[in-house]
C-alpha cells in the first residue's frame, strides 16, 4: 500500500503526522512537487489538492484526505501497529480536546505568530516589530501554561502512551527551543522541559526530525 504525505518535512503539522506514522511503523514518502523550502511552497501545484491550498494532504492508494485530525484518525484506524487513539468515548474525547487546544491556540501563537515571523525576518533581513513579538510571546506563554499543567503528573496527555495530541505538540516545542525567546518559555515550564528530554530519545522523533 503506497502512502504519500504532500507537504514539507519542516512543517510542524506535516511533522506531527510523520511522528504518528513512525510510531505505528508505517512506511511513507513526503514532499511537494517543485519545492524543498517553506518559502517556495506556494509555487507547488500539489497545493491544488487542498481547497484552501494548505498542507498536509494524505494520499493512500488513490484516496486523499486533508487536515491533521482527519489524517491522524485515518492512519490509526487503517494501519497495524500500536493503537494511538483510546477505546473509551471519554478518553477519545480527551484526546480530541487536547489536539483541538494545540491546533486552535498553541500552534497559531507559537508557530504562526512567533517562530515563523522571527525565522523569516532573519532570512529576509526584516525582523518583526518588537510589539508583535511581545504579543505573540504572551499568547504562547498562556497556551504553554495550560499544556504544562496538564502534563504535570503524566508522561503524555492520556498517561503512558502518546496520542495524536502529543505528536502535534512535540514539533511546536522543538521549534520553540531553537529560538532564545522560545527556549526560555519551555525552560520555565518543568513538565515541558522534561517532556522534550524524553521525546528527543524516541526512535520516531530521531527518524523524522527535519534536517
From TrEMBL:
Residues annotated as domain GST C-terminal: 88-211
UniProt cross-references to PROSITE patterns, sorted A to Z: GST_CTER, GST_NTER
Domain of life: Bacteria
Keywords: Transferase
InterPro entries in UniProt: Glutathione-S-Trfase_C-like (IPR010987), Glutathione-S-Trfase_C_sf (IPR036282), Glutathione_S-Trfase (IPR040079), Glutathione_S-Trfase_N (IPR004045), GST_C (IPR004046), Thioredoxin-like_sf (IPR036249)
GO MF annotation: an example: transferase activity
Ribosomal protein recorded as keyword: no
Alphabetized SUPFAM superfamilies for the sequence: GST C-terminal domain-like, Thioredoxin-like
Name of one Pfam family that matches: GST_C
Domain GST N-terminal: 1-83
Keyword Transferase: yes
Family: Belongs to the GST superfamily.
Name of the protein this chain belongs to: Glutathione S-transferase family protein
Organism of provenance: Pacificispira spongiicola
Amino acid at each position: 500500500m503506497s502512502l504519500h504525505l504532500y507537504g514539507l518535512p519542516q512543517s510542524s503539522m506535516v511533522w506531527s503526522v510523520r511522528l504518528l506514522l513512525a510510531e505505528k511503523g508505517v512506511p511513507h514518502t513526503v514532499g511537494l512537487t517543485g519545492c524543498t523550502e517553506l518559502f517556495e511552497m506556494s509555487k507547488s501545484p500539489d497545493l491544488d489538492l487542498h481547497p484552501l491550498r494548505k498542507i498536509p494532504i494524505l494520499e493512500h492508494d488513490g484516496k486523499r484526505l486533508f487536515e491533521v485530525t482527519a489524517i491522524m484518525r485515518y492512519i490509526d484506524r487503517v494501519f497495524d501497529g500500536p493503537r494511538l487513539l483510546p477505546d473509551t468515548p471519554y478518553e477519545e474525547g480527551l484526546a480530541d480536546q487536547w489536539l483541538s487546544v494545540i491546533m486552535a491556540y498553541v500552534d497559531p501563537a507559537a508557530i504562526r505568530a512567533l517562530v515563523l515571523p522571527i525565522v523569516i525576518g532573519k532570512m529576509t533581513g526584516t525582523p518583526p516589530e518588537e510589539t508583535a513579538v511581545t504579543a505573540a510571546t504572551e499568547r504562547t506563554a498562556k497556551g504553554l501554561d495550560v499544556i504544562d499543567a496538564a502534563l504535570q503528573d503524566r508522561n503524555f496527555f492520556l498517561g503512558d502512551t502518546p496520542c495524536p495530541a502529543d505528536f502535534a505538540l512535540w514539533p511546536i516545542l522543538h521549534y520553540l527551543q531553537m529560538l532564545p525567546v522560545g527556549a526560555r518559555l519551555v525552560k520555565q515550564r518543568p513538565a515541558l522541559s522534561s517532556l522534550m528530554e524524553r521525546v528527543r530519545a524516541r526512535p520516531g522523533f530521531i527518524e523524522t526530525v527535519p534536517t
